[in-house]
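ok so for the tutorial part 2 we go from a plain amino acid sequence to predicted structure tokens. step 1 is just haveing the sequence, like this:
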Amino acid sequence: MVVVAVTGKGGTGKTIVSALLIHFISKVTTRVLAVDADPDSNLPDALGVADQIKKTLGDIREVFQVSRDDMGMMNKEQWLEGKIYTEAICECDSYDLLVMGRPEGEGCYCFANSLLRGILRKLMRHYDYIIIDSEAGLEHFSRKTIDTADYILVVTDMSKKGLSTAKRIKEMSKELKLDFKGIYLVGNRIMSKEAEEIIKKFADEEGIPLIEFLPYDEKISELDLRGEPITNLPEDSEFVKKVKKIAELIVGVSIKV
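step 2 — the prediction. this is what the tokens look like for a chain of 257 residues:
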């Protein structure tokens, strides 16, 4: 099992990168779990499967908070696990999708979160690859809702804030003693050689390996405006080709499309 978390400052394009990684990796194996861990929940739209989502984990957790006192002797972990399997996991054509969402009500969710962590660990064992579209930073890791990952891909744009967030993510991983195999930088929407040099210098100084520069592609904005999934980008797009290279680094084989 390989767990890849895609993170970075909000608006840098991490959901787009996540969606294309899922698209390519699911061509190698159907044992792929996509996790939308961003409260904005944009991944289903990017993948074109928003109409297939029944409930989020946040919805399930809300029901659990209301219902658990009425369960009597029923095993609460089994109840919650059953709800996740039957209502929260979207079985898409070549991958499964789990949307974390967030609870809307008030109150303490410590007990539900504790159960959820254990269930997610059990669930993840059934897959070869787990691709997580994270919320900005490492909040899910600091809360330990998702407490494991092999590789962190930090997506940054040409902004100072994007680079500052990348630096903070590396610092946070050390503070929390998170044992990742590697944290890598991906430059997105890069429009000049000067921007490339600045990001390269930053990567060298911070000790974060830079694995790819993704070019600005106006077709991405056009797809978004039309409400079409990012997977509709043409295969000859430089952006698509470069994300495919990242996917091939993850799976270790050439991906045929």
